[in-house]
Q: What sequence folds into this?
């Protein structure tokens, strides 16, 4: 900080450097708040603060809207996943019902056993008849 002193003989101000150490500074002066500015700078500062407050309010409102949109989207996603699982389960149920109908149309164990038994008896009877009576020209008696 420079201090200007006026000498009686000279018209030029003399500048001297004044340096104060922090230890030498008066604590009352250091703790005192800076004097409030008035005028256009204070008006400009208050306008900036008002504008900042409005921007913060707009941001808070838009953030709240985004939270609501996110919540609605999450609920819709959950509902869609549930519907998809239900559709998949419905498809599985349809496949199972189709397979059951196909299995019911197939012959059962008893039917297959009887067919096998009849085929075995016919084969055994034909073999006995061929060995007993033979086929003229092919199998001699």
A:
């Amino acid at each position: 900080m420079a201090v200007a002193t006026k000498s009686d003989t000279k018209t030029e101000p003399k500048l001297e450097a004044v340096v104060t150490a922090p230890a030498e500074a008066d604590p009352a002066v250091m703790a005192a708040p800076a004097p409030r500015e008035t005028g256009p700078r204070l008006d400009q500062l208050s306008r900036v603060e008002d504008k900042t407050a409005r921007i913060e309010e707009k941001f808070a409102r838009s953030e709240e809207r985004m939270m609501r949109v996110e919540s609605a989207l999450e609920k819709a996603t959950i509902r869609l996943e549930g519907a998809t699982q239900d559709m998949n389960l419905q498809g599985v149920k349809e496949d199972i019902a189709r397979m059951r109908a196909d299995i019911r149309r197939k012959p059962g164990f008893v039917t297959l056993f009887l067919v096998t038994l009849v085929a075995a008896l016919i084969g055994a009877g034909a073999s006995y008849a061929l060995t007993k009576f033979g086929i003229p020209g092919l199998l001699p008696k």
About this structure: The radius of gyration is 53 Å. The chain has a mean pLDDT of 76.
